[in-house]
From TrEMBL:
It comes from Thalassotalea algicola. Keywords: ATP-binding, Cytoplasm, Kinase, Nucleotide-binding, Transferase. This is Uridine kinase. It catalyses: cytidine + ATP = CMP + ADP + H(+); uridine + ATP = UMP + ADP + H(+). Its EC number is 2.7.1.48.
Length: 214
């Protein structure tokens, strides 16, 4: 049941190139604030969870999708879910599988909270979505560092070979970064250097969240 008179949640978007440190940054803030604020106060949503469902397509077709284009995401559903949180309703957040390139049958229930961290590559490209965010943070990690981190992460966590990472990087990841992600930096309120372990940046965002949570 929606709670009446609950204040609108603060939506904090964390954007930047693939492997720029968005997840690490958001997760660190979440993990460090959770004991202080409690699970009713802070939540994380991943834009990647909203990659379109491709279960109707064969695997050989799914690997060919351009995952670095805004259209690869079901932003309408994400936007609808943010609206539900504003209305104090819980959401069923899809669970995406990078190995199979499609959604799983599972979902995660996310309850309305005061603070919602939303992280993903294309969050600022869509005006409707962008206008929902109260604070917009851009992870400005050099692209060569992102590539090195993506190689390490995707071989270990996402079942990729060096060949597949290289092919995808040249055909879509790098060109789409220059077409969509980097130009959206102008919409950011805060630009963060050095990635997900920038301790001062983590502390500044935590301090702002504490203030908003009072
Ligand atoms: N400042 C940093 N120093 C070292 N490793 C980092 C740093 N920031 C992120 N990483 C690592 O780089 C990889 C990509 O980071 P991740 O947070 O998954 O990026 P994104 O969510 O932007 O794709 C992860 O393995 C993460 O632990
Ligand atoms: O099925 C998929 C879905 C996504 N990707 C790649 O993931 C990144 C976005 O995730 P980050 O956590 O920000 O790295 C994007 O660059 C896609 O290329 C994929 O390869 N396969």
């Amino acid at each position: 049941m929606p709670e009446e008179n609950s204040p609108k949640p603060t939506f904090i978007a964390i954007v930047g190139a693939s492997a720029s440190g968005k997840s690490l940054f958001a997760q660190t803030i979440y993990d460090e604030l959770l004991p202080e604020l409690g699970a009713n106060s802070i939540a994380i949503i991943k834009e990647d969870a909203y990659y379109r469902d491709q279960t109707h397509m064969p695997f050989e077709e799914r690997v060919k999708t351009n995952y670095d284009h805004p259209k690869a995401f079901e932003h309408e559903l994400l936007s609808q879910h943010l609206e539900q949180l504003v209305s104090s309703q819980s959401i069923e957040c899809p669970v995406y599988c990078y190995k199979n390139h499609t959604r799983t049958e599972k979902s995660n229930t996310i309850e309305p909270t005061k603070i919602v961290l939303i992280e993903g590559i294309m969050l600022l490209t869509d005006k409707n979505l962008r206008d929902r965010f109260d604070i917009k943070v851009y992870m400005d990690t050099p692209l060569d560092i992102c590539l090195l981190r993506r190689i390490e992460r995707d071989t270990v966590e996402r079942d990729r070979t060096i060949e597949s990472i290289t092919e995808q990087y040249i055909s879509t990841v790098r060109p789409m970064y220059y077409q969509f992600i980097e130009p959206a930096k102008i919409h950011a309120d805060i630009v963060i250097t050095r990635g997900g372990k920038n301790r001062m940046a983590i502390e500044v965002i935590k301090a702002k969240i504490r203030q908003l949570s009072q």
